[in-house]
Design a protein that fits this description.
Layout (H helix, E strand, L loop, with lengths): L3 H20 L11 E5 L9 E6 L12 E2 L11 E4 L4 E4 L4 E2 L4 E4 L9 E6 L19 E2 L4 E2 L6 E10 L3 E8 L5 E8 L10 H4 L10 E7 L2 E11 L11 E8 L8 E2 L4 E2 L9 E2 L4 E2 L8 E2 L5 E2 L8 E2 L8 E5 L7 E8 L20 E4 L7 E3 L5 E3 L4 E2 L7 E2 L4 E9 L9 E6 L12 E3 L4 E3 L8 E8 L17 E10 L5 E8 L4 E8 L2 E10 L5 E8 L14 E10 L5 E7 L1 E2 L8 E2 L5 E4 L4 E4 L4 E3 L10 E3 L5 E2 L6 E2 L3 E6 L2 E6 L6 E10 L5 E9 L8 E4 L9 H5 L6 E4 L1 E7 L10 E9 L1 E6 L3 E2 L2 E2 L15 E7 L10 E9 L8 E3 L13 E8 L11 E5 L6 E8 L15 E4 L3 H44 L19 H7 L1 E2 L4 H12 L9 E2 L10
Parallel strand pairs: 63-65
Antiparallel strand pairs: 1-2, 2-3, 4-5, 6-17, 7-16, 8-11, 9-10, 10-16, 11-15, 12-14, 12-16, 13-15, 18-19, 20-21, 22-23, 24-25, 25-26, 27-28, 29-30, 31-41, 31-42, 32-35, 33-34, 34-41, 35-40, 36-39, 36-41, 37-38, 37-40, 43-44, 45-46, 47-48, 49-50, 51-52, 53-54, 54-57, 55-56, 57-58, 59-62, 60-61, ...
Length: about 1000
């Protein structure tokens, strides 16, 4: 198999042959300027050939023949290059440099050869017409550095290099804004990504204005380097770009030429590996071996300048004032100084003179915790004493202890634990005096060297120490920092408040854009650690090398840090005394105990109250928990144990929300930014605190190096662990990133206020009208939360309402949702609303939730069944009773019994009918006898006669009178005759007197 080296050699020979043929036609012979040398690829034996490559094909004839080259492992030392004609290492000339086996890119006036910028169009816009074009998105050269894009397009800076041996790549970068995603990764020539750990792939955030260095090892062979950025514009805030400079690659086989020094730098001796920057007020051009002085009378140049600039007339922007230390008379002098380096001209037309110094003013009082000694300086009070700053230090009274911390409200000199500095975006540190300046009752931002400089003010706290009486508490607050500030701006200024815990990573806590009225901000420290608080002020985010907005300032009037371990005492607070007689020693109170100011003893907070750590000692320090909540055993916070009871009328509903799970998650969306980036909002909600498990949200953009177990515990530098938190999720698809990105984790609720069916609690209002109405009889239960940490848009902090709704159609875990009118979970940015529908949110089942069904009696047995009342609106609790079978009497028995009773009743009725009929006939006979005896012609009975002759008896008459039973037809006739008004009827009588006629 022929090697590539032999193939190239053959090609060269063919070219030589063609050249000879062309030479026969009269072409000129090639000179050294008509060609250059290159090495072929190394073959399997480690050999290679040096061949001449024409600058322009066919321009000349007589190219040198291929010769065997140096070994493939050959390389030159730093400051040398490989001279290809002799194939020997040669020193670089003055005005140039070489890394030997490396290359460096430190000049970015234009994109260097080999670098390319590739923008990726967004592929996840909801409508194709709305997709923004990314043709204008690119890495832009800015002279000393490259600047990334500021929009949402994904832009890659690409450079390919072939290494003959293992090497490395290193570069410097600024990455201050986590709204921009920044990753660096490597691919081989097969477009396969190299194995790379997450801490080398995802770049960590840097402090504002500071440059960080990143180094990654490279393998031999082809390495394609990618620097990739992509924005996440969730609001109107301007994104800070990523800056890149000084890219250096080690491991190339050789350098065939030296690199000229860039303008503003020089190398004075041959064999240099670096170029030095020109001193101040000097300049240099391309490839300079020395720097040229400026005419300092009318011109100036900063360090590393390529040209001299004309000095402008002096103005108020070119000087500042300071206050001297207090003298023995308690006076301070106001001194005006030119900003260094001084670049302006005095005594010319339009120049502003320097204001006269020396005016003496009364010194401001000492800050609390300090006292004015005889040396006219403020000194800290000795341990165990305190001062308000205007009086001498005093001992704390018995039963009290000094409070530790810092409180700065007078600014004559910069406190010893504070530092100020200035960082220039494109270069390095500016003059320290141009950072922040003290001004009596406030400290304000200085001038800086240009408008886009970062003006830094820093205070370091080595740790926190709780007061003795609270040292045994297990609360979540160890200290707090409070500062009062304002900003006065005409440009797009921004003030950042940042925090660095244990010197791991600086994160932006809060920021304010443009002018802000005088206001107070407080941040609570929730862990006992070393922390640095930093204020950074930038007048404009646009590149600038002049001071145009020097009158745009940020002012801080006061800074107060509580419980600082190395702080001074500005006052005393009550403490608990030892139980020993006449002891004045302060002792720690057990967790959940407050100090009784009358007895100076530790007293436990009442049941279901929590202790406010920074409150005044006394019973008022114990605040009651809200409805449906209880306190932990240490009275440090309130929580719901997932048990809730609601009574309405004579009905009591009992709920057990523990079946919903410890932490619920909701990812709503997708949503799209104004430029089409797809993102989701992920909410994690810890409903109950029975098991102490809180919700955790973690940024993985700048913290991918931590393990999953650490992330679940909330141990990352950018983790949030609380009741309710939110993260912004950008899916991997459509952006070119290789993993889903989680960022902008924020705390929505760290305090549980209570659970109730009411729609308002502690000023927070639930909005049931935002959700679909339900006809269920079970009321919704609202869980209310709050975060008291103020933000720039929420002065009172954020709040949240989780509405639990009984829905038998949902699973036990249920489903979380946000209002359709507020797809981000909030309508005003401060109060968040969630609906949690679940069968587990139904009340516990009781006996009233089921009823009994009686079956038919079959063969002397009857079944009793128990079923739930539909719809079933309960869960758990009592269970349905089992089916019962009872003996019973069937229908045959009752039919026989009924038939017997019917027959008996019929016989009885017939008997009674006969009896009364017979009795009625007897009365009728008596009546007819009476009538007949009253109508005899021959004889009329007396008035008092009873129609029965005396001496006669009934029995006799009966023996003599026999009547014939009338027929049915006769009875009907008799009734008819009565109906016609007749008052008598004919009755035939059979008597022993045959001829006697009887009238009736």
């Amino acid at each position: 198999m022929r090697s590539s080296a032999w193939f190239v050699a053959s090609c060269a020979l063919i070219l030589c042959t063609l050249g000879l043929i062309d030479g026969a036609k009269g072409q000129r012979q090639c000179s050294e300027t008509d060609y250059y040398y290159e090495y072929t690829e190394c073959d399997s034996t480690g050999s290679r050939w040096r061949v001449a490559i024409p600058q322009r094909t066919g321009a000349c004839t007589g190219l040198p023949e291929p010769v065997r080259g140096t070994e493939c492992t050959f390389s030159c030392e730093a400051g040398e290059f490989l001279e290809m004609s002799a194939q020997e290492c040669t020193q670089c000339a003055a005005g140039s440099y070489s890394l030997g086996s490396g290359i460096r890119f430190d000049q970015w006036d234009s994109m260097p050869a080999g670098f390319s910028s590739l923008a990726t169009s967004l592929e996840n816009s909801p409508r194709e017409d709305d997709r923004p074009t990314c043709n204008s998105s690119s890495w832009l050269p800015q002279g000393n550095y490259l600047e990334s894009n500021r929009d949402e397009c994904t832009v890659s800076l690409i450079y390919a290099v072939h290494l003959k041996k293992q090497g490395s790549v290193s570069f410097e970068y600024q990455y201050p804004d986590n709204n921009l995603l920044f990753e660096f990764f490597i691919q081989n020539d097969q477009c396969q990504e190299m194995d790379q750990s997450t801490d080398t792939k995802w770049l960590k955030l840097t402090n504002h204005g500071e440059w960080a260095t990143h180094t990654v090892n490279l393998k031999s062979g082809t390495n394609i380097l990618y620097w990739r950025t992509g924005g996440m514009l969730m609001g109107t805030k301007v994104v800070k770009p990523v800056l890149l400079k000084n890219v250096q690659i080690e491991g190339v086989a050789y350098t065939s030429e030296c690199f000229p020094c860039k303008p503003g730098t020089f190398s004075r001796v041959p064999g240099s590996s670096t170029c030095e920057p020109c001193p101040r007020d000097t300049y240099s051009g391309h490839g300079a071996s020395s720097c040229t002085p400026c005419n300092t009378t009318t011109q100036y140049a900063a360090e590393g300048s390529a040209v001299c600039k004309d000095r402008p007339p002096c103005s108020k922007k070119d000087y500042f004032q300071i206050h001297t230390a207090c003298d023995h008379e308690g006076k301070t002098q106001v001194i005006y100084k030119w900003i260094e380096p001084k670049i302006c001209l005095e005594g010319v037309t339009g120049a502003e003179p320097l204001r006269p110094s020396g005016a003496r003013e009364p010194c401001p009082p000492c800050n609390p915790g300090f006292y004015n000694n005889d040396t006219a300086t403020c000194s800290p009070c000795p341990p165990g004493t305190y001062s308000d700053g205007e009086k001498p230090c005093m001992q704390c009274p018995a039963g009290t202890e000094p409070t530790l911390g810092y409180e700065y409200k007078w600014w004559n000199i910069l406190p010893v634990n504070m530092k100020t500095s200035c960082f220039n975006v494109g270069n390095s540190k500016c003059d320290s005096m141009n950072g922040w300046e003290v001004a009596g009752n406030h400290i304000q931002s200085g001038a800086g060297s240009s408008d886009n400089d970062y003006l830094i003010l820093n205070i370091h706290v080595p740790g926190f120490k709780l007061p003795t009486s609270m040292s045994g508490h297990s609360g979540t607050e160890f200290g707090r920092i409070t500062f009062e500030f304002e900003t006065l701006c005409t440009a797009d200024c921004e003030l950042y408040f940042m925090m660095d815990v244990n010197r791991k990573s600086t994160t932006v806590v809060e920021s304010w854009e443009k002018s802000k009225t005088r206001q107070t901000y407080t941040h609570v420290m929730t862990k006992n650690a070393s922390v640095s608080y930093t204020w950074a002020f930038q007048r404009t985010n646009q590149p600038s090398d002049v001071r145009r907005y020097v009158n745009d300032v940020a002012r801080i009037y006061s800074i107060k840090v509580s419980n600082a371990v190395d702080g001074v005492s500005s006052g005393c607070r009550a403490c608990a005394l030892s139980t020993q007689p006449s002891s004045s020693t302060c002792v720690p109170c057990p967790p959940g105990h407050y100090i009784d100011t009358l007895t100076s003893k530790c007293t436990e907070c009442p049941r279901n109250t929590y202790l406010v750590s920074h409150a005044t000692p006394g019973p008022e320090a114990c605040k009651p928990c809200g409805p449906g909540s209880k306190s932990d055993k240490d009275h440090s916070y309130c929580y719901s144990d997932c048990d809730f009871t609601h009574t309405e009328g004579n009905v009591t509903l009992t709920f057990d929300f523990s079946v919903l799970g410890s932490v619920g998650s909701l990812m709503n969306g997708p949503s799209f930014t104004s430029k089409g980036t797809k993102y989701f909002h992920e909410f994690n909600i810890s409903l109950c605190g029975r098991h102490g498990q809180l919700a955790v949200c973690t940024d993985n953009v700048t913290d991918l190096s931590i393990t999953d177990s650490q992330r679940e515990k909330g141990e990352g530098a950018n983790s949030v662990k609380t009741f309710i938190c939110q993260s912004t999720i950008i899916p991997a698809s459509g952006r070119g990133f290789h993993t889903a990105l989680s960022s902008q984790s924020i705390n929505l609720a760290d305090t549980f206020l209570g659970a109730t069916v009411d729609n308002t609690l502690d000023g927070i209002r639930a909005r049931p009208e935002l959700y679909p109405q339900t006809s269920k009889k079970v009321p919704d239960v609202n869980f209310y939360y709050r975060s008291f940490e103020a933000t720039s848009s929420c002065d009172s902090g954020r709040s949240a309402v989780v509405t639990l709704r009984c829905n038998p159609e949902k699973s036990t875990k249920g489903e979380l949702s946000v209002p359709s009118q507020c797809p981000a979970g909030t309508c005003d940015g401060c109060t968040f609303h969630f609906l949690w529908e679940s069968s587990g949110a139904c009340p516990t089942c009781t006996e009233r939730d089921y009823h009994r069904i009686e079956g038919a009696c079959k063969r002397g047995h009857q079944d009793l069944l128990y079923v739930w009342t539909e719809p079933k609106l309960c869960v758990g609790g009592v269970t349905l009773p089992e089916k019962k079978t009872l003996p019973c009497e069937g229908m045959e028995f009752w039919i026989r019994l009924g038939a017997g009773l019917g027959a008996f009743t019929a016989v009885l009725l017939v008997s009674l009918t006969c009896y009364f009929w017979k009795k009625n006939k007897r009365l009728e006979y008596k009546y007819s006898r009476l009538v007949m005896s009253a109508n005899k012609e021959c004889e009329m009975p007396g008035a008092d006669s009873c129609a029965v002759m005396e001496g006669e008896n009934e029995g006799d008459m009966e023996d003599e009178v026999v009547y014939t039973k009338p027929s049915l037809l006769g009875k009907l006739k008799a009734i008819a005759s009565k109906g016609n008004g007749e008052k008598y009827e004919n009755v035939q009588l059979n008597s022993s007197h045959s001829k006697a006629l009887v009238w009736s």
